[in-house]
Design brief:
The chain is α/β, with parallel strands linked by helices. The protein is about 40% helix and about 15% strand.
Length: about 400
């Protein structure tokens, strides 16, 4: 994090960090919708391209608005550097292409986003990088999976959609004993609730599309780290391969960061109230939310996170037929697989977010047909309860 911002609190950083006003004196951050930048002379152009002088060259890899977002998110995550990307998957791709080569080995949690699983098994595997999947919260499995070629350990905590958790500090200690990098996808907690770098992680990735935006407007991603390799190895991938963030999207994410903490606390409050309400219903077989004392890692959540998060999943008796009936009976909630929005969203993971996984992969990840995932928004919880009750009463 820039030394200029070390003495400020989270909410101040979320509003102020990274902004550099132009000569126009604008109060809100400016958008620089330009593909290229003009040089004062041929000598300056040569110096910029030779990396002998700092400055803008081309918006695929340097843009003032994007830089503002990068600096602000790095400050919030207590990281030294950040690279913004076109999507969360673009962030994961940039990390893997920048840090791995043929013959390397990844250990990943089974409980990660379906597209990440497909990227590891269907895309990067073609280039000679092998992935072993393990139980998120089983440290023995992580240890047993380590080989001499293991270079990266990758996880989401809490997981989607079952809210499973891993002890980040414990995994970081294990990784560093074997000179392995630990990468944590932090998009469900955001730095408002969890800061993996302060717990020993080497890399944090985000889908900025989710809570960082907060209103479902733009696609984007980010990588944050305290290591030099972010600039030396990951940035060249973004620069040459081109999964870069647009200036407009960066500006939208900046506006989202300004209200991140207050939104996350409201999401958490609503989600916990809705989880308790669902837990009282006979037709609900199980509720997955780390704020419930019945959650097996409730104490870890209290220790590792500032709050319990805005996602709630629940399993119905009756499988897919029951799940679809409840989903289709809602009138207020949005049937969409996106999450992190001020509007509550509802989805059936087995046929959407995890629909491209094999039956075996879904079984290993405990994604059953009766499971419903809610990304709890900022509506009145009483209205959300009534919306779900319409379907639950039919079961």
């Amino acid at each position: 994090m820039n030394d200029d911002w070390q003495d400020y609190s989270f909410d101040t950083l979320a509003v102020r960090a990274g902004q550099q006003r132009t000569h126009e004196g604008e109060h809100s951050e400016a958008i620089f919708p330009t593909s290229s930048f003009v040089f004062e002379s041929a000598a300056q152009a040569a110096a910029r391209f030779a990396h002998k002088e700092e400055g803008n060259i081309y918006s695929r890899f340097t843009n003032p608005t994007v830089r503002n977002f990068q600096q602000r998110l790095a400050a919030l995550e207590q990281g030294e550097d950040c690279i913004a990307t076109a999507s969360g998957m673009g962030a994961i791709m940039s990390v893997c292409l920048g840090l791995l080569q043929a013959g390397d080995h990844i250990i990943a949690s089974r409980s990660i986003f379906g597209s990440t699983v497909n990227f590891f098994t269907g895309i990067i595997a073609k280039f000679g990088v092998e992935t072993t999947f393990v139980e998120l919260d089983n440290i023995e499995e992580w240890q047993q999976a380590i080989t001499k070629n293991t270079k990266l350990m990758f996880l989401e905590t809490p997981s989607n959609p079952l809210m499973e958790m891993a002890d980040i500090r414990q995994l970081a200690d294990l990784a560093h004993q074997h000179d392995i990098l630990l990468c944590v996808d932090n998009c469900f907690c955001t730095p408002a609730l969890q800061k993996p770098l302060t717990l020993g992680a080497d890399i944090v990735v985000h889908s900025a599309t989710k809570y960082l935006d907060g209103q479902g407007r733009c696609i984007g991603g980010a990588v944050v780290s305290n290591h030099d390799f972010l600039h030396n190895k990951v940035l060249p991938v973004m620069r040459s391969a081109g999964p870069s963030m647009s200036p407009f999207n960066a500006w939208v994410f900046l506006k989202g960061l300004e209200t991140l903490n207050i939104r996350m606390q409201a999401h958490c409050s609503n989600a916990l109230r809705l989880a308790k309400w669902l837990d009282s219903k006979d037709m609900v077989e199980k509720v997955y939310h780390p704020g419930l004392p019945s959650h097996p890692q409730h104490e870890l959540a209290k220790k590792q996170q500032a709050n319990f998060g805005g996602l709630v999943s629940f399993e119905l008796k009756g499988g897919r037929e029951a799940a679809w009936k409840v989903i289709d009976s809602t009138k207020l909630m949005s049937i969409t697989a996106n999450l992190g929005d001020v509007k509550t969203t509802i989805t059936h993971p087995a046929t959407t977010t995890h629909g491209r996984l094999t039956d075996e992969q879904r079984a290993q990840a405990n994604i059953r047909q009766g499971l419903i995932r809610l990304s709890v928004g900022l509506e009145d919880v009483v209205d959300l309860e009534a919306d779900l009750a319409r379907g639950l009463m039919q079961l």
